[in-house]
UniProtKB/TrEMBL annotation:
Cited InterPro entries: WYL_dom, XPB/Ssl2_N
Highest taxon listed in the record's lineage: Bacteria
Positions with biased composition (Basic residues): 1-10
Protein known as: Uncharacterized protein
Domain Helicase XPB/Ssl2 N-terminal: 568-690
Ranges where the record places region Disordered: 1-28, 766-790
Domain WYL: 792-854
Annotated source species: Streptomyces sviceus (strain ATCC 29083 / DSM 924 / JCM 4929 / NBRC 13980 / NCIMB 11184 / NRRL 5439 / UC 5370)
Signal peptide start-end: none
Amino acid sequence: MERLRGRGVRRPCPDPPPATVGRMSNPAVPPRSLAEALRARDDVSLAALLRARPDLITPVPTDLTQLATRAGTRASVVRALERLDRFALQTAEALAVAADPAPYGELLALLTGDDGDPAVSAALPRALGTLREQALVWGDDDRLRLVRTALELLAPSPQHPSPTGLGPTVREATAGMSPGRIQDIVAAAGLGSTHDAVSAVASLTALFADRGRMSALLAGLPEESRQVLSRLVWGPPYGQVTAEPAVHLRRLLDLGLLVPTAPGTVVLPREAALHLRGGRAHREVAPLPPAVEPAATHRPQVVDATAAGQAYTALATVEELLKDWDEGGPAVLRAGGLSVRDLKRTAVALDVSEPVAAFWVELAYAAGLLASDGEADERYAATPAHDEWLEQPAAQRWARLAEAWLTATRTSGLVGGRDAKDRTLSALGPGLDRGAAPDVRHRVLTLLAGLPEGAAPSAESVLARLRWERPQRREEDLRSRLAEWTLKEAELLGVTGRGALSGHGRALLGATAPKRPDAVAQGPGDKLPVHHRPTAVPEPLSPTEQATASAAAARILAPLLPEPLDHVLLQADLTAVAPGPLQRSLAEVLDVLADVESKGGATVYRFTPGSVRRALDAGQAASDLHAFLAAHSRTPVPQPLTYLIDDVARRHGHLRVGAASAYVRCDDDALLNEILADKRAAGLRLRRLAPTVLAAQADPASLLDGLRAMGFAPAAESAEGDVLITRAHAHRTPPRTAPEPVPDGPPVPDATLLSAAIRAIRAGDLAATTPRRQTDQPQPATGELPRTSSAETLATMQAAVLTGESLWIGYVNAEGAASQRVIAPVRVEGGFVTAYDHTADEVRTYPLHRVTGVAELAGE
């Protein structure tokens, strides 16, 4: 195939060349900038960078120079530093106080000190590779450079103390000092005088960096002076002195071991502090993550059984919550969310604490089972999805709750706290989203999955591991709080049992049971169990993968959940005992016929006149109730319960209450006389209209309640005289979708997006860096779009078709976005050019009127 002039671009053919463009610079020449270092990377390395820092392709950069510029912006660098593990961050901090550029040996010495540490030496290549991969460090091992923005964030200054506790260098500390004062310090240190301040500072720097001479200098100091240095050596390096310092302080000032930076303020120079530290930049270096140690070990069967029992309790709690709100729940606050009073009432109804009630409410909301109804008098209520959820098997219902919890960004642990404007955060209200929550939940459960089956770690070891993986550089350690809440919520939900991850919890993560630590093959020098090693953190599952994992978790959990029962045990004291979960139809009828007296492993129901009357009001007849109890009781129906039902049924409906304003009708005038004579009826203001009718100045509902409080069993009737059957009206919201998680920054790009982005960046970089053929026309500056007339554009395109040359073009799309591309024209006709576009790695057709100009690529 014929080679064309330009950057080795081949003529379009049925098998177009790959989009990968090789190294643009000479491999023997070290890169002079981050852009050149990125240009020398292959596509795999660029993909790793964009995957680790997805904000760099939002939007896709036009070329590698723009990518390097974006990688050096403050917001992007801060985000990248916050996602480093402790040792990688310590490596970056050491580079910030090293020479610029720094050789690998100097960096290693700053991390290991004089004594050396084999673990640090072994872990440093990995940490340095992470920094290079994320474009925070560039250059070869003999010229390591930290990105300037990272250097500014990590380097020491009075306004921003160094995380290593080191002060400025001698040269920086003496920058504002007079030459005469510098010469005095050099002379006091026993060094020869110099002709200028620069050489004097260099001489003093060499003294402080020389271990032998520095030890001799410190040995001649009084004990008080050495104590002052020991207080400053590990930071902060700044101290206060009076206008007339003591003799031991004056001695340090004379030798330059303390340098004035402001009136009354002195600093310990970096070189002197490093000598006192034994050459180490950090007091403690953590090359390996702390182990997540098991605090207790249980049999896996016990863990699974415990977790399954808690999973069933979770389902029962959510069902009870939504049943309590079935006819319309609490009102929505004007600012959104539940009021404190409503949250307390919910906690009492569920018999849990308020934080736990907030968790269940937020979980049901995240799963799409409840929402606000959106009406004028806005209230919370169950959604139509709740009815569908109730019809699913128990294990599938749990999997839906667990999946919603795992991926939700709303954080119930914040309820009751304060936001940035000092407003109280309420359940179901705004301000509860934390983008880091799903990542922390996934990571905590992954750490538990890395332990042997049945092993429950201590919360302290989990938090220590998370702090190593993501050391918080801000004051608020939100990730630690999220981790603590995750451990508690996982136990409440039944993902864990007795602190250990259950079998269905592992399936929910898409994880498998780990091998025994002693059975894991270890590499050279690897003496730690598998859960001690700093392995790469696995990414959360995609939505499709998570759905598959949830289905697998449901299959594992299903055999562990108790089977619903179709019977109860009736007792002579007017109670019924349900020895386990009841079938839904049985539970619904029993909830109307009896009151729940106690819950637990067995639920106790109590029959009362009021509960029996409630069943009769719902349209049941006494015969129906007797048949129901006989069919679902494993014990004979007690005689007291039979008498109770018959007695309430005999009196039920004897009195009829309707709407005149309200009236009472009864065929037994003696009973009406009894009501009128009762002092408790005074508030109803009754009067006789006829021998069998009493009128009341009260609404029918108040009249019904008043008569029932007097011990009667009235029934409501319609205008036609028929008995009204009262049934609970289930209030539902319009169809609602579950709240969308709020991501913590741009999502990690998938392989398709990465491939397209890299092709576009490569092509744009090729267009920006390829030399142009010299012509008489003025050439555009690098990065600018070429400008030519329509006639020149058409002529150049037609010539390129004949010669097979590739062209650099400026193009403006239909949205008005301008870009530059390298194309190989194939055909020009009808106002369009068909060409192989290296940006898209495919043949495309472009309108000529959108081409702003063309330029020929220079020959090789």
